[in-house]
Amino acid sequence: MKNSSCDHAEIETETKTSKAIKRSALIITVLNSLIMPFMGSAVSIALPAIEKDLHVDAVMLAWVPTSYLVALAVFMVPFGRLADIYGRKRIFVLGIIIFTVSSLFCAFSSSIGELIVFRVFQGVGNAISYAPGTAILVSVFPFNERGKVLGINVAAVYVGLSAGPFLGGILTYYLTWRSVFVSAVPLCIFMLFLIFRWLKAEWADAKGERFDLAGSIIYAIAIIGLSLGMSAVSESKGLWMILAGLALIFAFIIWELKERQPVFDVRLFRTNRVFAFSCLAALINYAATYALSFLLSLYLQDIKGFSSQTAGIVLVFQPLVQAFFSPLAGRLSDRAEPRIVATIGMIITTIGLFLFTFLEKDTSPINIVACLIILGFGFAFFSSPNTNAIMSSVEKRYLGIASGVIGTMRSLGMMVSMGIFTIIISIRMGRVQITEEQHPVLMSSIVITFIIFTVLCFIGIFASMARGKRDSGC
Fold it and tell me: Which domain holds residue 118?
């Protein structure tokens, strides 16, 4: 009897420990998922103020968000792999520290060049912390709870996106755009405290395996070449950079197929249909939607003449709807096929983007809010079910890579999204500051971008449906 009671006590202690780890992992991951998008959406609303304060043209202004996205795309996959090898918590902490320090440097930038450089470091920090973040969450929760916690995590992303335009607008209006960057610092410090206080466990399912440095370098150069090429596409050198970037992507794929322990196992795309098409759907979704807040921020503040505070209130409706419905969509994807739920989300998103193709200078703010609410529904029903499908389709030892791939698809999609608008604005406006004389060209450029986004998202519907059924018990 004594042994039995001891065993029972040990089981009870283990259960409590397991619950504490789950709770800690969820809180910290959710905080990370909230802070990063908050910064992105808050900076978007502050862009017109940065434009005026630092006297920059539309093309250079686009590099404030784009430089951040390039860094995300370059570092997400390598650090997802490093997290699997050396420990996900260790890499996660490193990312938060880099993000915190670079946020302070962004706040004290005296030129557009300095700001872009420090935004790169912000992107590096975000990439390092995001890559293992979702993997930590999936590591501690069983298969039948993943949709629920991923839904909560996605909801946190949208809470951050919701708070960004609103609080970013207020901070910019009353305390200048620099306060937006400072606002992230205390939250990051608090998160580090929680990690060291509560999250004692470590996860390294690929411990002892070799890191593919050569593959990482090829990948990084390819992404940088593509992004620089898109920003200079109106010149001949831009086209050559894009072609060089595409050639290096092809070289990277060949290299990874030969590598025994690749930084990114591209075989997953060849052998895992659910993983491949879920990633493709994510890439298309972000490519068709990310520049939305940037476009509408310019439209509301430059063309309609709204203050940053008012523009933030208008833009807050979309992520609010996303935050509210994402947990519901996540739970739904535990019970129904994620493919069906995510595809419905993609269809709704396509409808919302199509409605924005009718945007005009005198469009009512109420109509804009209605379109944003539709998009909020679409994003909510796509994101968490799609993430659930990706993370449930791979073995445990690939969770860090899968998490990094999700982030990479997101950042590549965002980069393409910003690149599409940058190409259009470069060709139609050139490197000039946005003045009242430029408003008609800016307005037509925004509409053309929305038309392209609608077509992209429509293609994404078929990618989402083509993924097939998810296996159970991964």
Answer: 22-211+261-465
